[in-house]
Amino acid sequence: MSQQESKCPVSITKARLEFFYNDDSKNGMCSKCHPCKLGIYDAVKIFEAIQAGRGEEKHIALLRRIAEDVKDGGMCKKGKDHADILAAFLKDHAADLERHIKGVCTSRECAYLVRYEINPTLCTMCDKCREACKDFAIEGQKKEPYKTGFTPYRIRQRRCTHCGECVKVCPVGAVFIVEEQAVVGAGK
Ligand code: SF4
Ligand code: SF4
Ligand code: SF4
Prior knowledge:
By secondary structure, the protein is mostly helical. The protein contains eight helices and four strands. 47% of the residues lie in helices and 7% in strands. The two termini are 29 Å apart. The site of one iron/sulfur cluster has 15 residues, from helix 6.
């Protein structure tokens, strides 16, 4: 999903900081001053940890301090502008950040904070998802005419790497995404 299409503030902010960090030194970060160079790098790594389900409460304070340090110690407008991006995210999306730290991406974009399931009432047993799954995480039997007793399609969660390919190939929209914490909270 591109940055333009994303609705998740965590994904969008991380992508903007990452782009600034990795872009060439003319348009992006020049790495001349430490608060900007180290701070933006650390912020990206913290966002990665949060998106991977390893978020901690202390990350909020760390991100806040990075925003302040880059704003104070950055020597150019580009650096300070990115400190502002981070500060605005912390101010405007505080609740969303808290939810991510608890393991919930309400936009259902952060791959490791969601899980994929198959709706058996929609599934036509066409086998397209199983063929597309490079991690062999889907089991089920393709429906054949005049035969009965097929194994229904299901996703083996331990094998699933959250790549999203099954969602793309399913012709009937039978693969759906749920928040991981919603499943855990429901005791499933
Ligand atoms: S604040 Fe400006 S000068 Fe300093 S490292 Fe960042 S981009 Fe370079
Ligand atoms: S999300 Fe990817 S790894 Fe998981 S079941 Fe679908 S295709 Fe397989
Ligand atoms: S691609 Fe969709 S309809 Fe086909 S087997 Fe998979 S879940 Fe069922």
